[in-house]
Amino acid sequence: MAIHKIQNIVLIGAGKLATNLAFTLKKKGFTILQVYNRSRASGMKLAEKGSSAYIGDLRELSNKADLYALAVSDDAL
Question: 71 burial class (0-12, 13-18, 19+ CB within 10 angstroms)?
Fold first, then answer.
């Protein structure tokens, strides 16, 4: 069985948790491909800080990510 190394990540959410996660992951050498958020302003802000693409529609999620991290409130789930 082949083991696939996680390198490319999509963040779903742009609040405090997602922001801290993005900065920590980037510092550790991971690539944040995209940031999805319902609010364009906060999603764009995090995407710009993380050198990532902002997407406002889940149908635009990249299929090249190794990990999709949900960093949203419990109510959003």
Answer: buried
